[in-house]
Structure formats: C-alpha cells, structure tokens
Amino acid sequence: MTVTALIVIGGYSGPRWTLIVAGAFTAGRARAAAATFLEANAEVPGDADDVEAHLVLTDGTRTWEADDLTAVTAAGATDPAWLQLRAAVNKALRGA
After folding, report:
1. Phi, psi (deg, nearest 5) at residue 23
2. Which is nearest to 34 in space by CA: 1, 63, 5?
C-alpha cells in the first residue's frame, strides 16, 4: 500500500515547512525524510525582494518552472492537487 503523508517541520519561533512523503510511511522514514529535507535546504533571506525566486515547486518527479506552470492544461488524478488546480485554472482561462 502507498500512503502519502504531510510532515510539518518547524520550531517554536522558527520557520515551518511542509514535506510530502509518499510510500510506506513509518516514524523512522519520516525522521529520515525530514533530516534530508533540512540538510538540502536553507532559509529564504528575510530581506529577499522576490521570495518566489527562492522556492522550488516539485511534484516529486520533476521540478516545475514558472513557464511550465503557465502552460500546463492537463493533469491526472494521480498528480498533486496543486498541479490539478493549476491545470484547471489555465484551461478555464484559455476557454478550452
């Protein structure tokens, strides 16, 4: 069985992240995924003018750039909800 889990990582006064883990979900796997995530990422500078320039949007298989997201008009039931919504909005805006 495949399970998708959301893990929220954060401290009392620090930033919070949402990490999506798909597959066999255990506490050990969650800790390992959180550790890997934190090691591979850094905070966005507080004085950043363009916060979105520091963000990476991924569906777990590929990384989506802004141009990709404005062009997508189809997504399947197994795609992430954010991608399905973006495709539906783009399709509606194009009148398709």
Report:
1. 120, -165
2. 5
pLDDT tens, the chain, 96 aa long? 445 555 666 655 665 666 666 666 677 877 887 788 778 777 777 777 777 777 777 777 778 787 788 899 999 988 888 888 989 999 999 985
Helix (H, G, I), strand (E, B) or coil at 70: helix
Element holding 71 (H helix, E strand): helix 66-71
54 DSSP assignment:
G
With 0.70 as the threshold, say if the pTM is over it: no
CA 92, CA 89: separation in Å to the nearest integer?
5
CB-CB contact of 57 with 38 (8 Å)? no
The amino acid at residue 5 is A
Question: Under a CB-based contact definition with an 8 Å cutoff, are residues 14 and 34 in contact?
Answer: no
Per-domain residue ranges of the chain = 1-42, 53-96
